[in-house]
Write a structure and sequence with these properties.
Blueprint lengths: L7 H17 L20 H31 L3 H27 L8 H16 L3 H25 L5 H23 L9 H16 L3
Amino acid sequence: MTHRRLSPLDRLLAQSQHALDTLFGDPAATRANPAADTPDVALDPGERRHAAGLMRINHVGEICAQALYVGQAAVARDAATRDHLMHAAQEETDHLAWCAERLRELDDRPSLLNPLWYAGSYAIGVAAGLRGDGWNLGFVVETERQVEAHLDEHLQTLPPADLRSRAILETMKADEARHADEAEQAGARILPQPIPTLMAGASKLMKAVAYRL
């Protein structure tokens, strides 16, 4: 059996479909929701709003992760790097689905600015990927380390009774740490300053906006 070589137009259409599915579809997780067996307890209105704000931030983070990895994979020069990025993106799809499900349980919604978050992250992913695979993987490491840190912050500020959100975030944190470790082992380069600082600043702005919108 022969496989047709994808043309630039084929890749553009596939990536456009991925964006539409991520933003407006209902991506399915390949793994069971880690909160499936955790009881859902009643939260007071303030706790529910805060938990929903945190889960909306994490949902946006997964939207951004999808765009980043697809953008990076689009220009990756090495097939192994491209496969690494797409495998990580698949696990991030699990996170996206789990966060969306938890938002529905909290009677809340995703960010209204998700198309903007996706477009900006895709552009950043392409720019990172064009620097070469070592820098590409270095960007993965820095992104995942920063996400791991903000997940740790969320775990500390979640309402104590919200065990379902906690179960999801703990699994996500473990996955992000593993993605960073795997990228380091695959040959990631350390990003020079001021890139990590700029990334942290952009993340801080995103979190402040996504918590409400």
